[in-house]
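Cont'd.
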Amino acid sequence: MHLLIMNKQQIVISVDDISLSYGSQHVLNNVSVDIPKHAIMAVIGPNGSGKTTFLKMLLGLIEPDKGTINVLGSEPKKVRNRIAYVPQRFSFDQTMPITVMEFLVLSVVSVKKVDIDDAMEHFKITHLQKAILGTLSGGQLQRVLLARAFMQKPDILYLDEPEAGVDIGGEHDFYDLIKHLHDKHDMTIIFVSHEVDIVSQYATHVLCLNQQHICFGDPKVMLDTETLSKLYGTDIDLFNHKQKKS
Amino acid sequence: MIEILSLQFMQKAIIAGMFLGVMMPFLGVFVTLKRMAFFGDGIAHASLAGIALGLLVGVAPFTVAVPFALAVGALIYFLERYTKISSDSAIGTVFTTSMAVGIILLSLKSGYQPDLISFLFGNILTIGVTDVWVVAIGSSFIMLFLIVFYRPLTLLIIDPVQAWLQHVRTGFLEFVFYLITALAVVFGVKILGIILVSALLIIPASTAKLFSRNFVQLIMYSIALGFTAVLAGLFLSYYLNLPSGASIILFSATFFFISVIITSLWRK
């Protein structure tokens, strides 16, 4: 019994047999997964495999037709203030003159100035505080969104393809920042990605989705040619790239 | 100058104009940010049915137009949110239907309708003491709402998911914003007219956007531009015997085009 309780405490997100359909179109079928505390879990799968929908269900934005989701011991909606989210594409009126500082101040309820300054320094965007949000590059905007997440001091951080908009080659710097965020604040991170290389290097767990659960576990073990071929529905060969020197 | 201020109808027009000149550009910042310019226009046109009903039954048009505009605002909100109809289709359908109802109602009242012309184009001569009170109290209420809900409202418009994560009641706040905008438009109808009232929501904010360097500046410049245009327009309207709504909007549009030229040259 004690062991069971100890084990339960380690699980921050429990997804139990969830399904979702839009009319006759099945988006997710009978997906179950338990995500342990402090994990960096990647969700991978082909386009239209339900990755973003899965993330939105974890956030509580979409309710499953069947099954349950438990986040931090509660319904996702009830604990949403303990969660931070970085969207795939942050769409807003780019002509609107709102500065980075104003955006950060407005984004988090009762945030302290010292926390904003700390986050901006941490993500190297202090020099951008007076810049208008719509003038930032994709990479700069992602740093601003990460700084916002950092300011919230969340227990769980969701990122939907965070490398989108980041320059080629800048992805590793970006994930180094995310890893640093994880290590320093002991948070659980769940990110959607297409980059198998990134997943192997940074994730502690991987969930392979193609409308249904294909695999879950250590990416170094799970991401073999057979699983990836099954996941993407085509023959896949893996090549090892040189890892970035730390 | 002193002569104009001693005239009772001008005093009423200036007081009501000052409230509208601050409130509408302030609200307009959020309306343009949320890309709801067509909503303002739609509500203004739809209010014709409420005004016509008031004229037909012989009560102050405001007393019918205000609840009618609120109902139209709510209907548009629900159509946008709970059906597959796009925002512009919902607004277009509701406002043309309301106008059709208004025209039918007016056709039931025989004879020339001077009040109707005033509502269509704005007329400072028709502003009564009650109208001034309604505009002053209503505008103050709307400005108070914008000040109190400045943060959640701005966040809701820029990033609705983040607003939701921060426990903002997004659906409710958005609904109230629709109602507030509908109210503001009806308050402006007497001075600016049905056809032009939404311009005071859109033009000052669009002008300020051209040269503002942050969000606070955008609000301040919008209010300054709207306030100046309203007062200048009312004075022009009096001295040249022009319709008040058109005079105000022409001033506002002049500021806009001057700003476009200056900011375009500045960038070169």
